[in-house]
Amino acid sequence: MKARPETVDAAALDEAVRLVTEVCERACNGDLEARVPVISGSERAARIRIAINGLLDHVDAFVRESGAASAAAAEGRFHRRFLTQGLDGAYRAAAEQITHSNQVMSRTAAQFADAARARQALADELESAVLTVSEQVATAATEMGRSANGLADFARVAVADAERGLGTVSSLRTSSDEIRHAVDLINQVAAQTRLLALNATIEAARAGSAGRGFGVVANEVKNLANETSASSEEIMSQVNTVQQSAADAIGVLEAVTNRIREMSVLVEGIAQAVDGGHQIEDVGLSQLAEVLRAEVSRFVSTIRAS
Amino acid sequence: MKLIRVRPSGQERTFGADELIVTKTDPRGILTYANDVFLRLSALDEDEAIGQPHNLIRHPDMPRAVFKLLWDTLRQQREIFAYVVNLAADGAHYWVFAHVTPSFDETGRVVGYHSNRRVPSRAAIAAADDLYGVLRAAERRHDRAQDAVAAGHDTLQRVLAERGRTYDELVWDISTGGRR
Q: Where is the Methyl-accepting transducer domain (chain A) (predicted)?
């Protein structure tokens, strides 16, 4: 059966108004899933339906795009842009604004990433520099330790040499004492000889001309005794000089030995600073370099993790 | 109602840059809404489309792995973009740049899926067609559907690994014509 077209049209339009109102109310409340279903019997009702559904499709598309594009930007997925295609007018203008905001966010994120990269690079450089320095300090410390030990050995040898020198000079003093003793003896002999020569001269004078030759001999003997005495004086003077020199040498050698002993203490101090002492807290230069390296490693790890 | 498989005619159909193809499905992929642009391009009447599964317009050139990726992504309640070639009821085909998102109710439950499709550039179609050719070749070496999907998926992952891009990034690379 067939109804009259205008009656059908009016009924269909009434139905369309009811359906469109219902769908618009749902859309107003944020339900963008609703669409106007098929309305048969009216060309005008069908056109209203397509128009309303088209409006909802565009609002739906805009809402989905703005939510998804913003979420993507927040997650750092800046390659996902707002799809403006298929959206016109105010939709497009708002979409372009969102795109612009996302680009600003993208630049900020890139700057943060650059800063983080720069920090990482700095951490790498610091670590590498400290590693180099601590290796060099360790090498220098080993070298210094070796030198200090060498110096200590040298000082021990020098002290031993100086002590041997002291012994030699002391024995020189003993020898000169013996010389002095011998010269004293010679002086006594010379004095007695002089006395003997004097007696001989007196006896020669008493003998008169017969003793003349004997007097000449006695005079010669006196002269020899005088010469011997003079030579002895000379020797004594030389021996005194030797003894004074030996005393000076002993003083100098003792001073040198003391200086070397003081130097040994200083060298020992250097060796301790380099290698560490006997106490646990007395860490040496090598261990300090290792501690520095470990601390910087820890610092750098923290920076890399942040 | 059982549809007879449509044979592709090779004829290409296209649509306006200012147009949106819109469809909605329930959570199982059954069409609940299709706009006029969809019906026009698919050469379908509304009553032929509504109530049918969305693969009603599936073209045999589409790799299975792409649809698997699409459904896997949607099940994680995430949006997905994909280039898709669809088969109209009259045998013609049309390429779309599809954006598929889950629809939620007020309680956050997924009540269905929504697809907005825009017309892609020729360059994007060419790139997608090349990629799908590679995936199809991998899939056609297998008789069992699940083996084919796995082969297509592996091939896609290899392509992405070679380029050092995620699927998402690759799709956007294509959409911007390599502008980056």
A: 94-275
**Do A288 and A151 sit in the same domain of this protein?**
yes
Same domain, A20 and A126: no
Instruction: Mutate one of A31, A64, A75, A91 to test the B interface: name it (highest B CB count within 10 A).
Output: A64
| Cβ-proximal residues to B148 (8 Å cutoff; 6+ apart), any chain | B64, B139, B140, B141, B142
The set of residues, in sequence order, having a beta carbon less than 8 Å from that of A72 and lying 6+ positions away, is: A78, A80
> ipTM > 0.90?
no
Residues of B in contact with A33 (CB under 8 A): 24, 103, 111-112
Q: Please provide the DSSP assignment of A127-160 as one string.
A: HHHHHHHHHHHHHHHHHHHHHHHHHHHHHHHHHH
Q: Are residues A120 and A76 in the same domain?
A: no
Mark yes or no for CB contact A57/B101 under 8 Å.
no
* pLDDT, tens digit, 9 for 90 and up, residues B26-62: 999 999 999 999 999 999 999 999 999 988 899 999 9
